[in-house]
Specification:
about 700 residues, 8-stranded mixed beta sheet, 3-stranded antiparallel beta sheet
C-alpha cells in the first residue's frame, strides 16, 4: 500500500493545487478583490494551511485507495500519459516554489511582507517567472529522463542562484547578472574572499536537505520517461526555452511586452519591478560591449577624423627620459575617515602627507565593493565599463580570448619591459590569459612569486608585493612598467583577520557592534598598507633609475550587508550608492624620484585616462587615441553608469545632460571602444599608430 501512495504523489500535488486555487477562486468571487484574498490568507495562514492540507490528504488517500481497490494504480503508474503528467506537475511545483524563493531572497528573506506586497502588485510577473522556471525544469526532466531527481536538482540549482543573487545584492548593492556565471570555474579562488558571507545554518540546511532528498528518492518508485517520449518532446521544449531566453526579435518578445517592464537603463529598478529571473534574462546579451546605435564603418571613420585632428594639434617629440612606471593598485584602499565616526588614530598619515606634497587627486572607480578586474580593464585598456553590457566582465568575456592594444603594448613599443604581479591564482578572472593578451612580457601569480609572506590569515601582504616589484626594477636593464595588484585588504573584515586584532579603535553614535568591528579591522588594513607604501616610496627615492609610481585604490570597501556601516554613519543608502560620486572616489597619487614635471592639479579622473595622462605628462610620443582621450578628459574627466562628472566636477545622471561637445566626445569614444573590442576594427591601425 505504501508503494501505491508513493506512486500517487502526483495526485497529492494536484490536489493541493486544486484546493489552493479553489480558495482563491471562491475568495475572489465573494470579495471581488484579489488583494483581499491574499490579505485574508496572510492573517489566517495557520488555519487556511491546515484546512487545505487536510482536504489534500483526504482526497489523496481516498483516490489512491479507490484506485488500489480497483487494481488501477499500477496500470496508471505504468502509463505514458501519467508519467508525462507527473513530469509536468513536478515542473509546475518547482517553478512556483523557485519563483517565490527568487523574489523573497531578492527583496529580503527576513521581510516576507515585502514579498507578499510584490505578489499583490505584480501577479502576472510572478506567474510569468514561475512559467519560465517550470519550462526549464521540464526541459531538464526530458534531458535526464527521471522526474523526481531532475526536479530536485532544478530546485537546488534555482535556490543556489537565488542565494547568489541575495549575497551579491547584499554586499555589492547590485544584482546577479548572466555574465557572473562565467566565474563558476573560478570558485576555488573566489570562495576564500567571501567565506565570511556564508552562515553555518544555511550550509547545514542545504546539506541535510540534499541528503534527505537523496534518501527519499532512493526509496520511492521512480517516474522514468521512455526515450521515444523524450525525443519527441525535448526538441520543442528546448526551442521554447531558447526562444524565451533569447526573445528579442522572436514571437516570445510579445510576452515580455505584456507581462514585464524591462528597463535596462536602471538595473536596480529592472530587477525590482520584474523580479530577478526576468531581470537576468533581460540581460542575456551575446555582445559584451554595448553596440552604439550609430555604429557603422562610415560613423567610426568619421570619429577617426576627429581623433586625427586632435592628434595633429598635439604632436610632440619623444622624451629622452623613459622612467620606470609602476601602477601600485591597492585592494580596497580608501580613506575611512570620510565616515562620520572617530578613529583613535589616522589610518593613513603617510599617504595623506604625500598627497599634500605631490600630484594627487581621486580615481573615479567603475566598481564598488569588488570586481577589481574591471578597474584593471579601464586602467590598462583605456576603455570604459560604462559601455559594457550589464554584468559583462571584459577580462573573462573578451581579453582572455585574444590580444588587444593597451597601455602595456604602447609601452612595449617604447622599449619597456612589462610585468604584471597579482598575489593570487592566475585563474581568477582568467588573468593568466588576459595579461599576456594585453602585452605583458611576464605575469607573476602567487606560485611564481619569491615573496609570499602574509600579515593576515588569508592573503599575501602588501609588503610582499612591494618587494617583488623592487626586485624586477633592480634586475631589469630596460625601463620597466609594472602593474602590481595587492590583495591584503580584501574582505572579509572579521575580528580575527589580524593576529592580535586591530590597533585602531572606532567610536560613533549609532554604530552597531558588527560595523564597529568591520571598521576597526578595515582601518588596520589601511594602516598597514599606508606603512608599506611609505617604505616603498623611500626605496624608490633611493633608486638610481628614474621611476614614477602611481598609487590608487581600486574601489571602496563593502562594509557589511546592505551598506550597513555606510547607513549607520550617515554616508548614504542604496540610492546614494547608485548616484553619489563619493561612493566611487579613491586616493590617487603620482610620485617620482626625479623632476618628472607632472601636473599638480590631478582632480578626479576615471582609470581610462591613466595611460593617456601619464604618456602626456612624461613626454612619451603618443598615438591618436591617447591624444583624443586627453581632449575628452578636459570635457568629461570621470564617468560611470548614472554618474557623469563635468570639468567643474559637478555631476549629472545621464549623457543627455552633458554639453553637446561632451556628448560628441563620448559618441566617438563609444565608436572606438566597440570597434576595437567587438566590432570590425575598421580604424584600429590608425587609432594606435605611433609615427
Amino acid at each position: 500500500m505504501v508503494s501505491h501512495f508513493s506512486k500517487g504523489i502526483p495526485i497529492l500535488l494536484i490536489s493541493f493545487i486544486f484546493y489552493s486555487s479553489l480558495y482563491g477562486l471562491v475568495g475572489g468571487v465573494v470579495s471581488g478583490n484579489f488583494n483581499a484574498v491574499i490579505d485574508w490568507a496572510q492573517i489566517h495562514t495557520g488555519a487556511l494551511s491546515m484546512l487545505v492540507l487536510l482536504l489534500t490528504l483526504a482526497t489523496w488517500t481516498g483516490v489512491v485507495y479507490y484506485l488500489h481497490k480497483k487494481e488501477w494504480m499500477q496500470v496508471l503508474y505504468e502509463s505514458k500519459i501519467y508519467k508525462i503528467f507527473t513530469s509536468l506537475i513536478m515542473s509546475v511545483y518547482v517553478g512556483l516554489v523557485s519563483a517565490f524563493l527568487f523574489i523573497a531572497y531578492h527583496l529580503g528573506i527576513d521581510q516576507i511582507g515585502k514579498t507578499t506586497e510584490w505578489f499583490q502588485q505584480y501577479p502576472d510577473r510572478f506567474l510569468f517567472t514561475a512559467f519560465l522556471l517550470s519550462l526549464i525544469t521540464f526541459a531538464f526532466i526530458l534531458l535526464i529522463g527521471e522526474a523526481y531527481i531532475a526536479s530536485t536538482l532544478s530546485l537546488i540549482v534555482f535556490y543556489l542562484v537565488a542565494l547568489a543573487n541575495y549575497y551579491k545584492k547584499e554586499f555589492r548593492n547590485e544584482p546577479l547578472f548572466p555574465y557572473d556565471f562565467v566565474q563558476i570555474g573560478q570558485l576555488t579562488e573566489v570562495l576564500p574572499m567571501i567565506s565570511g558571507a556564508f552562515s553555518l545554518p544555511i550550509i547545514l540546511v542545504l546539506t541535510a536537505s540534499l541528503i534527505l532528498a537523496s534518501a527519499v528518492w532512493w526509496k520511492i518508485p521512480k517516474f522514468k520517461l521512455g526515450w521515444k517520449t523524450r525525443v519527441v518532446l525535448v526538441v520543442p521544449i528546448v526551442y521554447l526555452v531558447f526562444s524565451f531566453f533569447n526573445y528579442e526579435g522572436r514571437f516570445t518578445a510579445s510576452y515580455y511586452q505584456e507581462y514585464a517592464s524591462i528597463m535596462p537603463w536602471n538595473q536596480q529598478n529592472n530587477y525590482y519591478y520584474n523580479g530577478p529571473v526576468l531581470g537576468m534574462i533581460s540581460n542575456l546579451k551575446f555582445d559584451v560591449v554595448e553596440k552604439p546605435d550609430s555604429y557603422s564603418e562610415r560613423a567610426v571613420e568619421a570619429s577617426m577624423v576627429q581623433a586625427d585632428e586632435v592628434f595633429e594639434e598635439k604632436q610632440t617629440k619623444d622624451t629622452e627620459i623613459k622612467p620606470n612606471i609602476i601602477f601600485f593598485m591597492n585592494e580596497t584602499f580608501w580613506d575611512p575617515t570620510n565616515l562620520d565616526v572617530q578613529f583613535s588614530e589616522d589610518p593613513l598619515p603617510n599617504i595623506r602627507s604625500l598627497m599634500k606634497e605631490n600630484p594627487s587627486g581621486h580615481l573615479f572607480s567603475p566598481s564598488f565593493g569588488g570586481e577589481t578586474a574591471n578597474v584593471e580593464f579601464e586602467a590598462l585598456t583605456s576603455f570604459s565599463m560604462n559601455y559594457i553590457n550589464p554584468g559583462g566582465n571584459p577580462f573573462n568575456n573578451l581579453l582572455s580570448n585574444k590580444s588587444y592594444p593597451s597601455f602595456v603594448s604602447f609601452l612595449n613599443k617604447h622599449g619597456y619591459y612589462t610585468e604584471a604581479i597579482h598575489p593570487n591564482g592566475g585563474n581568477l578572472y582568467r588573468r593568466d590569459n588576459v595579461y599576456p593578451n594585453l602585452g605583458f612580457n611576464t605575469s607573476k601569480f602567487i606560485e611564481d612569486m619569491t615573496y609570499t609572506a602574509k600579515d593576515n590569515k588569508q592573503f599575501v601582504s602588501d609588503e610582499s608585493v612591494a618587494k617583488e616589484l623592487l626586485d624586477t626594477i633592480e634586475n631589469e636593464e630596460d625601463p620597466s612598467f609594472i602593474h602590481a595588484v595587492t590583495i591584503a585588504n580584501h574582505l572579509p573584515y572579521d575580528a580575527d583577520k589580524y593576529e592580535g586584532g586591530s590597533s585602531i579603535s572606532v567610536q560613533g553614535e549609532g554604530l552597531s557592534d558588527e560595523s564597529k568591528t568591520r571598521l576597526e579591522v578595515y582601518a588596520e588594513g589601511i594602516k598597514r598598507s599606508d606603512q608599506t607604501f611609505q617604505w616603498l616610496y623611500e626605496k624608490i627615492q633611493a633608486l638610481d633609475e628614474p621611476t614614477v609610481i602611481v598609487f590608487f585604490g581600486d574601489h571602496l570597501p563593502s562594509l557589511g550587508a546592505n551598506l550597513q556601516a555606510y547607513k549607520e554613519t550617515g554616508y548614504g543608502d542604496e540610492q546614494d550608492q547608485q548616484t553619489n560620486p563619493d561612493f566611487y572616489q579613491t586616493p590617487l597619487l603620482f610620485l617620482s624620484n626625479y623632476e618628472a614635471d607632472i601636473n599638480e592639479d590631478v582632480g578626479v579622473m576615471s582609470p581610462i585616462y591613466l595611460g593617456s595622462f601619464l604618456s602626456n605628462e612624461l613626454g612619451l610620443k603618443t598615438h591618436p587615441f591617447y591624444d583624443f582621450m586627453q581632449d575628452m578628459k578636459g570635457e568629461i574627466p570621470a564617468f560611470r553608469n548614472q554618474i557623469f562628472l563635468k570639468s567643474n566636477e559637478d555631476s549629472v545622471k545621464s549623457e543627455e545632460e552633458l554639453s553637446p561637445s561632451a556628448q560628441e566626445y563620448l559618441e566617438d569614444y563609444h565608436h572606438f571602444q566597440y570597434d576595437v573590442l567587438t566590432g570590425n576594427q575598421h580604424v584600429i591601425d590608425q587609432l594606435y599608430q605611433i609615427e
